[in-house]
Structures are given as C-alpha cells and as structure tokens.
User: What shape does this take?
Amino acid sequence: MSRRSRLLASSRTRLAAGGALGVLAQLSSLGLLLTSGWLVVRAAEQPPVLYLIVAVTSVRMFGVARAALRYAERLLTHDAALARGIDHRVRSYEGLARVMPAAGATRRGDVVRTVVADVEALQDGLLRLRLPWASALVTCAVTVAVVALVLPAAGVALAAFAATALLAARVLVPRLAGAEGSAPTALSPDVTELVLAAPDLVAYGSARGRDVRAHAAVDALARQDRRRAWAGGLGSLVVLVSCAACVLATALLTADAGLTGPLVGVLLLAPVGLVDVLDAVAEAERLRPRVQAARRRLVALEGGSDPMPAPLDGTRRPDGFALDLQDVTLGWDADLVEHLNVHVPEGARVVVTGPSGSGKSTLAATLSRLVAARSGTVRLGGVDLLDLDREQVRAVVGWMQQDTVLFDTTVRENLRVADPRADDATLWRALGRVRLADTVASWPDGLDTVLGEDGSRVSGGERQRLGLARMLLAGHRVLVLDEPTEHLDGETARALLDDVDALAPEHTVVVVSHAPEVVARYPQRVDLRPSPVRRPRVVR
Assistant: This one.
C-alpha cells in the first residue's frame, strides 16, 4: 500500500472515531441539560440529599465528558480533514498537470481558485456539513427513543419536531441560499488579471475603468453572502418555532399523563436540548451550494482527459537526446507553423527566431510534450514523442519560460523544486555552473535567503540564472530557453548567454528569441518567419 493510500485509510479511521466522539459529546451536552433539569425540579421537592447523589454525580460527569470528548473530536476530525485536503490537492495538481495544455486558456485566478479555495471548501463540507448531520441524526434518534420510553406521545411530538427542522434545513436553506453564482467564479480571475496587468495599464494610461468588472463581482458576491445569511437565519427560525410548538405539545400531553414533576421537566427540556444540534444543521446547509460547486470543479479537473495520453506501449526509451522534426505542423487550435524540418544533434546550440505570434513558444511546448504536433513527427533520441510518456520526455527536455517562477521562500527550497533530495553541496555546484554561487554566498543568509513574493528581492538576471540552475539540478539534457534575455540589460544578457553557451556540448541548448543580438550569436537557427510560399523550414 502506498503512503498516500495509508494516509487516506488512516484518515477514514480518524474521521469515524472523531464522528463517534462528536456524537458522544453532543449526547453528553444533552444529558447535562436533562439531568440538570431533573435535578432542579427534584431538589425543589426537598427530598433527602442522598436521593440526589446520582443526579449530582451525573451532572459533573456529563459536564467533564462534554468538554473532553469535544476536544478529542476536534483533534481527530480536523486531522482527518487535513489529510483529505492533502489528497484532494495532490489530485488537483495531477489533474492540472495532465490537462495543462487544454487548461492553457483558463485564467490564472480560476486555477488558483480550484487548487486552493475549492479544496478548502471540501474540507468545510466534511467538518461543517457532513459531521453536523451525522451528529444530529444520531442525537435526535437517541433522544426520541429516551422520551418515547417515558411517554410515547411525547416521543412522537419530538420526532415530528426533529423531522420538520431537518427537512426544512435540507430543502429550504440550500434553495434560498442559491446555487454557486458567477460572482466567486469571476472575482478571483478578474482581480488576478487586474493586479498582474496593473503596471502595463498604468504605463499606457489605460487603468481608468478597468476595475469596474472586479467591483461588480464584489457587489454580486456581497449579495450572495447576504442571501446565504438570510437563508441560515430562516433555517434557525424554523428550528426555534418548531421547538416552541413541540414544547407546547409536550406540555399538553403531559398534563394528564400522571407523570412526576422531574420527568415532566425532562420531557419539556428535551426539545430545547435539540435546538443547538438542529440549528447547527441549518447553519451547515448554507454551505452546501458552495461545497457542491467546488466538488464539481475538482471532479472535472481530476477527470479531465489527457490531450496527450501515455502510449499503450511504455517500454520504449530515447536513445540519446537528439531532436528530429519531420514535416511538422504546429499550433493549438489552428496551424501556426507548417512543414517544419529540423535536426538538432546532441550538444548543439540552436536559436529559434521569428516575430511575435509566429509559433516560437508553441514549438517549445511541443518539444516538452505539452502539446502534440498537428501533423508530422517529432522524435527525441530517435523515438517519436507520442511513444514516450510525459515523464520520460520532461526528464530529458526542460523548458524555462520567459518569466521564471520563484516562490516566496528560500533559495534552497526554490532550487529543490527541481531535486528535493539535493544537498547543499549539490546546490552550490549548480549555482557555480550558472555563475551565481558568489552572489548567493555574499548574501547574509546564503541559501537561506528568502526571495520574496514572486522573487521580488532578486534582479532579472539572478532570476533567470536561478531558473537555469533548477534545470541543471533536474538533469535535463535538452534546455529550451524561451526569451532568456527578456527584460535584461545588454551586459547582463551577454553574460547569461555566455553561461548558457558553456553548457554545450554536455547539453543541447535551444534558445527561443526574436532579439537580433541573440540571433546573431548562433550560426544554427530555425526561422519561423511567415513566408508567402509554404516550404519546409530547416536548421541552417
């Protein structure tokens, strides 16, 4: 059994144990209320004190047990929910990696919402929706049974009260709360796009009015939250009104039942004791639309079809790391590059050039097996990419995009993204190969230096070198560098390219750039410039 399977099995055990403890805690709370009611009424009759010893002891026991059981229940259920959350997040990452080309049109805020907020919503669904229902059903059943033993008619009235409250909570509250609307869906990507584009919008004087959609989404979200609050409040109102009716019915039923005063007190307090547990269900049902919408999105992501599925025969292995493209047509939804013929031998240095939109990044994505060629054959080490799974290809081919992603953590952890097992000596060697070791060593915290949000504490050249060091740590033999000198000054760009060139012939280097000074460095080039005559383009 894998570690992940063991984690899930353990979480199910803890969840079941925590749910049982939660039910016992709720029953202890109810027992405390009913026993206290019996004790107060019985004590008013001034019996010998020994008649009250059992009740007094029971009150103390229920009071202590309620707190202890609730604490233990919280520990177990939250631990199980976190384990479930880890599994959902891993599955969402796996789904995202599988469908990433198809998800390329998905806005960044939507992706963040799915892998963060939706997973948290499922955790809420477990802790704040399923567990309250389990506790309510068991507690109501036990309480009805106890009351029915004393007075069957009162048990029927209590059962009617509980059923009415639960039915109203399940049917009425979610319907009034409304389905997951467009506001949460639109707010995250709208705000994300606005923040990311803010510098360009300000620079071009186009910022005015760009926040209108985000404000509209905020207003819609506020209306939705108010609607859910009203729905939860109405559910609580139904519980309280039903409780009052049940107390009145119980009072009428016990009037001529010939019961002692303490038992009458217990029967009248029983509906009151169920108010908290039933109100928790009404409050929980407000979350159901959000939890259901989050589950649908995660299921859609986890079950998304792979645009480049693994080959049926997974036994083939690339023989080396030479690249061959034969009569290849590239594109996503339409043809961008046609009749492309390229041979890149092992250890070569090649530049791919062409104007914006000519297909340079599409070629890089194709070499990384993120998108399939629309026609033709792409081979790595003499093997068709379609005969290799993504892990085989990406173990050899590494793609560093224009903006290297850096995380708000240390240099060490940013580098270990590529190789989690790398020790410090390995990290320093990788930094030395990209001429960044001395720079990092000069920082007061060295490898423990925190890079800031999105690498805000390092320069553009340092960012690119860290990305290059990652690729070396990952062991890629083919390095595809997409616009590596973008946003760099001339001197820094030349120094970076000098280091890149030094990686050959141990690595094949494919530089994607439209900058003339970069293109001029490499005698071998692939020109994707549109041509009025469709003819094969080759490395020259």
